[in-house]
Amino acid sequence: MGCLNGISLICIVLCVSSIPSVVFVYASFLPQDQFFIDCGGSKAMEFGDGRVFQPDSGNPYVTLSSQGHTAVSDHETSLSNHSNLYASAQVFRETSSYTVNTKQIGRHWLRLHFYPFENPKFNLKSAVFSVVANGITLLHGFSFSEVGKTSHLVKEYVFEVDGTSSKKLVLTLSPWNGSIAFINGIEVVSVPAGQFPSTKVMPVPLGPAVDVPKHVTFETAYRINMGGQHITPKNDSLWRTWDPDHAFLVNAAAARNVTANPSRIKYSDGVSVEIAPNWVYATAQEMADAQVSNQKFNISWAFEVEHGFSYLIRLHFCDIVSVALNRLVFNVYINQQSALDYFDISSRTMALSAAYFIDFVTNISMGSNRILVQVGPPMLRDLPSNAILNGLEIMKMSNHRDSLHANLPGNHKMDTRSPAGKKKWMLLAISSSAAGFVVLVLMSAAFYLYWRKIHQKKLKPQCSAWMSLPSHLGISDSKVSICSYDSTAHSLSLGRILAFSEVREATKNFDKSLVLGVGGFGKVYRGVLENGTVVAVKRGNPRSQQGLTEFRTEIDMLSKLRHRHLVSLIGYCEELNEMILVYEYMAKGPLRNHLYGSNLSPLSWKHRLEICIGAAKGLHYLHTGAAESIIHRDVKTTNILLDESLTAKVADFGLSKLGPTLDQTHVSTAVKGSFGYLDPDYYRRQKLTEKSDVYSFGVVLLEVLCARPPINPALPREQVNIAEWAMSWQKKGRLEKIIDPHLGGHVNLESLRKFGETAEKCLAEYGVDRPTMGDVLWNLEYVLQLQEASIQTVSSENSANYVPYTPEWLPQMSDQESDATSSAVFSELLDPRGR
Ligand SMILES: *[C@@H]1O[C@H](CO)[C@@H](O)[C@H](O)[C@H]1NC(C)=O
Ligand SMILES: *[C@@H]1O[C@H](CO)[C@@H](O)[C@H](O)[C@H]1NC(C)=O
Ligand SMILES: *[C@@H]1O[C@H](CO)[C@@H](O)[C@H](O)[C@H]1NC(C)=O
C-alpha cells in the first residue's frame, strides 16, 4: 500500500508542481470583449448585474447575414415595463449567421439564451436546428421540447477565437428540414488568460499529464457550489451560475454542509475570484458524524454525462473546517479511480481558508454515462477522519470531429475518438524527457518521505492530547471536601454530594484500566465505594461549558426520579472544577453492545423483548410518572443500560427537558439529539413533545430487531437509514427478510408482525399519529405474550409460523459489504460515544 501511495503521490507532485506556473490570473479582471446581444430586441436592456444587452440590429460589432429572419416578441411581456431578454427572439427560416468582431484573440465565454415563448407567428417549441461556432458543432438537431425545461435555457461554452479567423466569431444557426431556428440572446465575454488549462492536465486514471489543444471547445455540464446555495450571475464576476449539490449527493446522510464567513477566504498564487467567487470557497460538504470514532466512508456525487466524450473536472478546495494546518488529509476519486491520494490542502496553500483548485481530465468510455466524484479519509490510523469539497465544475470537451454532439450526419455509429486522434492526443501528452522524469521521480519520492515524517511528527501530539484528559487535578486535596459520603445511609436515597477524594479512591485515582467508556461528556470509570457498592463514575471534561449545563440537568432530573427502569444517581461531586456523577453500576453495559459491534453472544428474542419492555417502562414513567412530564431527548441503544440480570434501565438525562405543561402543548427548543434517532417532526417544527422520544424508541426497536446501527453510510444507499429500510420491508409485510440472522428459527411470525406494527406506529411522520409510551408498552407486552404462547405449543408441524433460520438477503451480501459492516464500522461502535 505504501508503495502505491508513493507512486500516486509522485503523480500528484508532477501535476501540481506545474499548475501554479501555468495558471496566472489577475485579481481584478476587466474583460476586453463583452458583447451582450438581445436577439430580436428593440431597446437596450439592463440586467442589473453589469450586463447591458443591446438589440442585434444596428449593433456595430455584430452583423446578421440571412435571407429569411424575423424578429418576434412576446407582446404581453414586452408591454410591461419589465425588461426581459426572453420576451423577444430572432427566428430563421434558412441557415443564417451572426458575426461578432472581437477585439481579442483567445478563449471566450459564449452563452446562448433560448426561450420558446408563445406567439401567434411561430411555434418556437417545435423548432429543430443546429448551431455551429467557428466550425465547432455546439448543438445538433436541437429542439427545446426535448430539453424538458419550462423556463429559459442558457447553454454555456468556452471557445477559442484564433488568429486565423481574423478575430471573428461566426455563429451559424441552421434550421432542420422545413423547421425554423431561433435564439433570444448571445453573450461573448473574454476569458482571463490561463483560466482554462492548455497544458499539463492530469488524466484519471492517473498517467502522464496531457495537453488540452487550444481549439478544444468546452461546454459547461455542471457548476456546483458544494454545501451552499445557488449563486446567480450577480454574485460571480464572470456572470456564471453555480448550483447547489443536494441533487447530486449519492447519499445525503454521509455529508454535512459547513459555512465560513466569505470575507475570510484568502486568494493567492494563481487563484482569484475569477476562478470561483468567495461564496463558493466559503461553503463545503464535509463528512457527517456517523457516531463512530474512526469513521471511514466516502461522500459521493454522481453526474449524468454523455459517453464517448472527455470531460475536464475542476475541483475547488478551501479548508474551512480545520483549526490547524495539516489536519485535513483525504483521498479524492473520480469514477472510482484515485485522483488525489493523501491530499492535504494546507500543504499547497500554507494557510487555512485559502482557495485552491485542481483540474483533471477523464474519458467517459462507451457504456458509461456518469461521473462519480468521491472524497473520503485515507486508511491512516492516526489522522482524524474528514474530507471536504467546496466546488466542482464539469466541462464537456469537443471531440476530434470538432463537435460537442455525438450524432453528426454521416457518422453512423456513435463512436469515440478515432485511433489516430487518440494517438495525437496521447503524443501531445508526453511532455517531459525520460531523464527529467527520473529526476522528478527521485525528488518526489524524497519529498514524499519527508512529508510523511513531518506529518507523523505533527499529528502525534494532537492525537494523544485528544485521548487523555488534563492531569492538573492531581493537586486536589481531601481537606476541601464539602460533605462526606455517609456510607451507612441507605444508598437508595437521593444523590449525595461526594468528596473528590472519595471518588478518586473509588477509581484508584482514575486508573486507565477501569475506563468503561468515553462519551461526549467525558470518561466513565468503574469504581468501588468505601461501603463496597460498585458504581459507574462519569467524570466530565472540566473545560466544557455545555458539559456543565448537562451535568446540572442530569443531577436535577435524577434527583427527582426513582424507578426500577431508570439508572439511579448515587452521588455527585462538584469540587475543584470537577463535574463527577456517580451511578449504580450496570454490569452488562449498553444495549448496543449486545446487538452488534462486539463479541458478546447474541440475545434471544425473549430477552430482547423484555429489554424493550423495560426501557419502555422507564420512558413511560418519565413521561407520566413524575410530578412534571420529562422528555428524555436522547433515546438510543447506548443510553439503555443492562444490569447483571439484563434488566434494562434508561440512562443519560443530560439533554432532558421538562415536558409541556397543561396550557402549552410543546416545549420550543434548539434541536438536540443523536444522528439517526432524530424525530423529523421535531426537526421541522423545533417543538419538542414526548412523541419525539417515541420516534427515537421506534428506531431502537428496529435496531434490536435487525442488529445494525440506525445509520450506516457503508451500506448501499437504500439501506443506510434503518428506519427507511425496515419500513420499506414492513410495508411489504416482509420484515422477516432483514432481521438479525441470529433470531432465525426463534421468532414467532405473529409476534414479529405485531412488533413491526408497533415500530411503524412509533415512526409515524407526525407526532400526533404516534402512540404514547404507554400504548407502546402495552403492545410490546402483547408481542411477548404471542411469542411465549407459541413456544408452549411449538412442534415441528407449526414451524412454518417461525421465521426461517437464514433470511434470504444474507447470501446476497458480498464479502466486502459484510466486512465493512461487521468490522470496519461496527468495531468502532464498541466505544459508546455519548453524542
Ligand atoms: C445545510 O444543512 C442544513 C441541515 O442539514 C439544512 O437545513 C440547510 O438547508 C443546508 N444548507 C444548504 C445551503 O444546503
Ligand atoms: C450575493 O452578493 C450580495 C452582495 O453583493 C450578498 O449580500 C449576497 O448574500 C450574495 N448572495 C449569495 C448567495 O452569494
Ligand atoms: C471510497 O471510494 C473508493 C473508490 O470508489 C474506494 O476504493 C474506497 O474503498 C472508498 N473508501 C471507503 C472508505 O469506502
Automatic annotation (TrEMBL):
Q: What is its main location?
A: membrane
Signal sequence residues: none
**What would you give as a GO molecular function for this chain, any one?**
protein kinase activity
**Compartments (UniProt record):** Membrane
Q: Upper lineage ranks?
A: Eukaryota, Viridiplantae, Streptophyta, Embryophyta, Tracheophyta
| PANTHER family, per database record | OS01G0750732 PROTEIN (PTHR47989), OS05G0423500 PROTEIN (PTHR47989:SF62)
Q: What is this protein called?
A: Protein kinase domain-containing protein
InterPro entries linked to this entry: Kinase-like_dom_sf, Malectin-like_Carb-bd_dom, Prot_kinase_dom, Protein_kinase_ATP_BS, Ser-Thr/Tyr_kinase_cat_dom, Ser/Thr_kinase_AS
Span list, region Disordered: 810-835
What are the Protein kinase domain coordinates in residue numbering?
510-783
